[in-house]
Specification:
The complex is a heterodimer of chains A (115) and B (111). Chain A is 0% helix and 50% strand. Chain A has strands at 5-7, 10-13, 19-24, 31-37, 44-50, 53-57, 64-68, 74-78, 87-94, 105-106, 110-114. Chain B is globular, with a radius of gyration of 13 Å. The chains are: A mainly beta (115), B mainly beta (111).
């Protein structure tokens, strides 16, 4: 049973560039959430996708956008990269909150470095 | 803001029980307490959750006080591989169940 998979594992970009990160949820899960984790900090919620729509959003600028596909996989896009966007980006999947208390299953993240 | 407070760090001897406390004094009656841990360079891993009764699974036990204002995660026989940051979280199900992570407790298991 494959868990949450993310690609790539590491990425180096230059300020001002754009980046796309990818996530495949755990089998049977249809809700995907994205988190940003700066060094030494706890993960911060970016947004959540369910039924191909953004359902919840954290305190992140519009430079951060996402998409969910019919197969439940998801992408996180970040435009106009800043040095402060350097972080570990985590994807988590779950059953919809309305179906009960479904724990989040996290991938191992994509380490993004902006130079 | 996170609804929970935890000590920033703890040490535990290998083979002994690790008891990690968490305060969640503003928890509502229908809100669960979840515990996750994050081993270095990995994503957070779900451990256990509970509402008001004590819970046990293959990884840990969760003891919730009767007033539900605090809880303790117990790793009965800590190993070096249990060294990690442990997060106690109360999800906000009015906001889609998103997790608000605090700083967690950095547990160091020492030989």
């Amino acid at each position: 049973d494959a868990g949450v998979t993310q690609s790539p594992t590491h990425l180096i970009k230059t300020r001002g560039q754009q980046v796309t990160l990818r996530c495949s949820p755990k089998s049977g899960h249809d809700t995907v959430s994205w988190y940003q984790q700066a060094l030494g900090q706890g993960p911060q919620f970016i947004f959540q996708y369910y039924e191909e729509e953004e359902r919840q959003r954290g305190n992140f600028p519009d430079r951060f956008s996402g998409h969910q596909f019919p197969n439940y996989s998801s992408e996180l896009n970040v435009n106009a990269l800043l040095l402060g966007d350097s972080a570990l980006y985590l994807c988590a999947s779950s059953l919809p909150a309305g179906t009960g208390y479904s724990p989040l299953h996290f991938g191992n993240g994509t380490r993004l470095t902006v130079t | 803001d996170a609804k929970t407070t935890q000590p920033p760090s703890m040490d535990c001897a290998e083979g002994r029980a690790a008891n990690l406390p968490c305060n969640h004094s503003t928890i509502s009656g229908n809100e669960y307490v979840y515990w996750y841990r994050q081993i270095h360079s990995q994503g957070p891993q779900y451990i256990i959750h509970g509402l008001k009764n004590n819970e046990t699974n293959e990884m840990a036990s969760l003891i919730i006080t009767e007033d539900r204002k605090s809880s303790t995660l117990i790793l009965p026989h800590a190993t070096l591989r249990d060294t990690a940051v442990y997060y106690c979280i109360v999800p906000d199900y009015n906001q889609g169940g998103k997790l608000i992570f605090g700083q967690g407790t950095e547990l160091s298991v020492k030989p």
